[in-house]
Structure formats: C-alpha cells, structure tokens
Amino acid sequence: MNSKTKLIHCGRGDQSVEARSVNPVLMRASTILFKDHASWQKHKELRKTERVLSYGARGTTTNFELEKLICALEGGYRAQLFPTGLAALAMVLLNYASKDVHFLITDAIYGPVRTICELFLEKIGVEVDFLKADASDIEEKIKPNTKLILCESPGSILYEIIDLPKLCKIAHAHNIPVAIDNTYSSGYFLNPLELGVDISVIAATKYLSGHSDVTMGIVVVNEKEWKNFNRLPEVFGFTTSPDDVYLVLRGMRTLDIRMRAHEKSADEIVEFLQSRKEIKTIFYPKLKSHPNYEIFMRDHKGANGMITIEFIDSYDKDDAIKFVDKLKYFSIGASWGGYESLATVTTPPRTAIDLSTRGPFVRFHIGLEDTKDLIADLTQAFDSIKK
Hints:
Distance between the termini: 54 Å
Radius of gyration: 22 Å
Number of helices: 13
Number of strands: 12
Structural class: alpha/beta
Order of helices and strands: HHHEHEHEHEHEEEHHHEHEHEEEH
C-alpha cells in the first residue's frame, strides 16, 4: 500500500464489520472494567506484547489506532504515544541511561534536549558528547561504552543533512542503536527505519496534527529495540488524551496534501528570497547550494515548509527583530507545522561549531496562505529595514 493510501485506510478500527463510522470511535476512559479477575490478569499479561485495554493511562482503542497508523507509515514494530515531542525524546534518552555510559548526540538536535542532558543525564553519570551536525565525525567519537546515538536530520533551524545509512552502518558495527528526531519529515517524507535507524521520534504537535491545537510525541521502534518503551509512560506518569489522539488522526488524513502544499509554497518563497540583497545565506535542503543536498534528494521524498535566512553583515539582531515585527501574515510564535505562517528571530544552539560571528538568523514556517500575499508581506518588511 502506498503511503498516501495508508494515511486514508490505516488506523480506522475494524473495517470488516457490516456497519461502522468513517472515523475510529473516540474512547475516553481512565478505568477499564473486566468481567472477572482472570480477565483482568489476562489483559495485564497481554499488554506486555500487544495493544490491549488494561488501564486508561496506557491508552484506549483510539490511541491504539494512531499507533497502528504511524507504524504503518514508518514501518515500525510498535509505537508509543507521549504528551509532547520533548517527552518522547526524553524517554528515549532515559531508556538507555545508566551510570558510566556514553551517548552521542548530533549538534543540530532540538535545543531543549541539551537541557535534559544537563539536568538529568549528567547527574546520573551519563557522559554526553556532541557530534558535528552532519555526524561526519562519528567514527572518531565512538567509545567502548557508547550506548546510544541520537540525531536529527534535517537538523533543527539550519537543516543539516546526515547520511543515515552510513551512520547506521557504523553504529551497528559497534552494536549501538540509532535514534532520530524525525519531526521535520513527520514519518512521511523520510522513512528512517528503512535506512537502518532503530528509533524514530516525531512531535505530532507539528505536521501530523497540522492545526496548532495539540501537543503530542510519538516514538516508533523496531522489534530489536522495543524493550521498555511501552512501560515508560506509566512509570513516569505520562498519558495521552484520546481527544488529542483523535485530532491527530483526523489531521493525518490530509497529511499528504498539506505537506506538499507547504513544500510548494516554500519553494516559491525561496525563489523570491534568492532575489533579496539583504540575505547572505538561505538554509533550505532543496537548494543545490545546501550542504549534502545530494543526500537529502536521495533519501527524502520532499521538504517541509521550514526556511531559515541569515542576513548580510550590515544587519544586526535589532534589524532582524524590526523585520519580523513588520510582518503581517507571519505570526511570531514557537512551534511550526500548522496552517499559519510563522517567523522568529533565532540563534541556532550549536557547540560543535562557532556561530557567534554569524547571523542574525530568521526562521520561517511557510503556512498555507496564498504565496502572493506572503511575498508582498516579506517585501514590505524587507523595505522597512533597507539600508
């Protein structure tokens, strides 16, 4: 089944019944009732390996349908839902954490992951090193006690590209699992498990939901690395609302159409931005000038609506702030992946490279508005800071 068809036909409940609703039933429950003690014990045992009702915090039938759909897209063995994307990333790290182990994380990882390392991993004796954003220094950074590699590709804010098959081949030769933050492609434009990755993490908050009204994270795991992931939410008291799950399921039915619309509009905006003399660098993986462009085009089925620009040296951060404040159709706000366009002045968090003399940077999320309106808006904002 093609991925576009999976979005429509997977995760919709039992379709063999004589009569049913188009969408899966929304099941709200905290307590699950059983006819007798034996049934209760049976379900508690089955939940170790299967999706079965046992306790509301461990998911209802609505949750299970989203897990099935995302597994179908990603080609995963099982999936687990979390209340946010960051919670999902934290659980991946903590699942492999113990005293005196070593983690490798790529430099372009989602910024708050660094805080998890500082507040929790360092306290329990986990050593963390940051790779270059493209993971090109992986072989020299692996240690005998390296137990996990966490990467992001395209990277956060500057969209650095990793050769995932090469990275996984090196990691697996040392028996090291590889996890990726796959939010950029959202399980649709990139299938990392097919390229050798063991664990894929997606912030469903972004493109899967698509409407800026849900927070959720999803971990998709192959069979080899599935151990413990279904237990972590209950141990840490995490649960995911079936109402939010229902919204994500509904949003995913149009994921193909929305992702391709975001990409088409982003292509048009990039073409416009290339004509602006205020810009030194455009960060967009589909540009031939983008580092590792060939790898991106080989492995990815498309780009999303994310673009970052770097102003020329005569502009400073105050100019960038004035530019963003002048925009009318680009709102200022965290997150992305919804239907609305966003623009934020940003500093990419990097330690493997020095960006102190670079910038200022502005990150755009290109929404679903008419690109003529967006280009006109950008034009007037650029004109307002012209020197």
